[in-house]
Amino acid sequence: MVARVRDSIERQGMMATLGAELIGIERGRVEIALRYDDRFTQQHGFLHAGAVASVLDSACGYAAYSVMPPDASVLTVTYTINLLAPAAGQHFAMIGQVVRAGRNLVVCRGEAFADGAERPFAAMQATMSAIYNRPGVSG
Amino acid sequence: MVARVRDSIERQGMMATLGAELIGIERGRVEIALRYDDRFTQQHGFLHAGAVASVLDSACGYAAYSVMPPDASVLTVTYTINLLAPAAGQHFAMIGQVVRAGRNLVVCRGEAFADGAERPFAAMQATMSAIYNRPGVSG
Amino acid sequence: MVARVRDSIERQGMMATLGAELIGIERGRVEIALRYDDRFTQQHGFLHAGAVASVLDSACGYAAYSVMPPDASVLTVTYTINLLAPAAGQHFAMIGQVVRAGRNLVVCRGEAFADGAERPFAAMQATMSAIYNRPGVSG
Amino acid sequence: MVARVRDSIERQGMMATLGAELIGIERGRVEIALRYDDRFTQQHGFLHAGAVASVLDSACGYAAYSVMPPDASVLTVTYTINLLAPAAGQHFAMIGQVVRAGRNLVVCRGEAFADGAERPFAAMQATMSAIYNRPGVSG
């Protein structure tokens, strides 16, 4: 399972572009790290919500993937993200966890933390889909 | 108003990194274009939901900003995005529109279209906040 | 199709309790009316968000159901609702419309209007699931 | 604070209609109980998502209210609810908790449990607004 997750995330051009780093994989829980970079800012110099959401989405997606059967692929159906405070800081930890897994849909929650803070600055609730036997969709 | 929006979007490192291009600004409506690039893909080679969300979020945020008083700054409070179909294609049009504007909160809807299709492949519902007189937050 | 929708909605105890009335059914669009009643208020005397959401959810669910195959049943996967203004008024029109329908998931948007107003006071983005052959789930 | 929450929730016609019962109030956490009743069902006989959402919304709203200044009133801005499984059972516990509180906005998460189950059947992420000095809005 760890190999499947690692292999899939390494195929994400977006994670490479953002410099996101896979920190931990457990069954139902994935942590990804992101560093501040002014290539990914919004207009006030904070990290853009889209960069935060990209990494949280991947963390939730792979948390879901980690509980799916080996022949399933994962796609994001929908997510809601709250930006609880500006994404100020240098090191960001993004954690995705499975809330409940059904046969076709897996619901996850994600939280983003800046510089070791205890309280998250962003919170996600995400619905992931398990895909089987669809051409062009693997992993 | 157009100058304020253009000036603010040009300060977004994230939009430059994604190569996003501002196509149109009207009062309450902003359109941004994005091209396919394998730097922004997910594991199946489609555009990553995070790239789509980043640009839709900016389109909605600036649509909201376009109806705010000149001394307001804009921050994303929360959004929900549905990925209706994989982000397959070469040219993507992301359109954000104001649904209703209050004094402090502006709610917008966004839609993303691939290669001139009539039906969107992604839909967003976003809540934006007007910020006044907060140090470090301008535009 | 109209008969299937009408039959299913008549089995909803919640719609009867709220006094909700089915106004219109087209392929991909359902309208339901609700009257103000102090049995359904929140603490300031406005209609409770839950009453608004209940009816919008049903309007979106049946809009989705109206485009599903005859042997499908419909369940709500997730929705996001924005309360754009307090639900003040006497007569409320709730409209659900399909944005895009896939094989298993149908995404809808809903809007709620008070007393014939042009601008909605609530907006929903909903994900509905088509269920096949599940015991106890029909219609 | 407990008296303020209790007083406000008793003014909600919707909670009385649903027979919802306030079980616990702590700073940042509110629990409300709901019993199965066929007046609040959807078409398959499960509890309607709207009934679940109404009570979770109130649990989250009062969790937010419990951390606001005494002169604030609370209104729901937006929430996302995932129905993780059909609302089957007789006794439902709905718990709202504050994730992070700002001056004007408080973000909460809610979970709904059936018949003492460990895993929730519904999950909410909600954004609540603190209102000051608005005529007709108190509590």
Defining traits:
3 helices, homotetramer, alpha+beta, 6-stranded antiparallel beta sheet, 139 residues, 40% strand
Walk me through what this model shows.
The structure is a homotetramer of 139-residue chains. The first copy, chain A, is an alpha+beta fold. In chain A, 23% of the residues lie in helices and 40% in strands. Chain A is built from three helices and six strands; from the N terminus they run ααββαββββ. In chain A, strands 1-2-4-5-6-3 form a six-stranded antiparallel beta sheet. The termini of chain A are close together. Chains in contact: A-B, A-C, A-D, B-C, B-D, C-D. At the A-B interface, α2, α3 and β3 of A face α2, α3 and β3 of B. β3 of chain A pairs antiparallel with β3 of chain B.
Radius of gyration of chain A, Cα only, in angstroms?
Answer: 14 Å
Strands of chain A, total number: 6
Q: What's the average pLDDT of chain A?
A: 95
Gross geometry of chain A? globular
Let me know the largest β-sheet of chain A. Answer: 6 strands, antiparallel
> Which stretches of chain A of 5+ consecutive residues score pLDDT under 50?
none
Q: What's the order of the H and E elements of chain A? A: HHEEHEEEE
Beginning-to-end CA distance, first to last residue of chain A = 11 Å
In terms of DSSP E residues, the strand content of chain A is: 35-45%
Biggest interface goes to: A-B, 41 and 41 residues
Assembly level: homotetramer
Structural class of chain A: alpha+beta
| Helix proportion range of chain A | 10-25%
Number of helix segments of chain A? 3
Largest beta sheet: strand ordering of chain A: 1-2-4-5-6-3
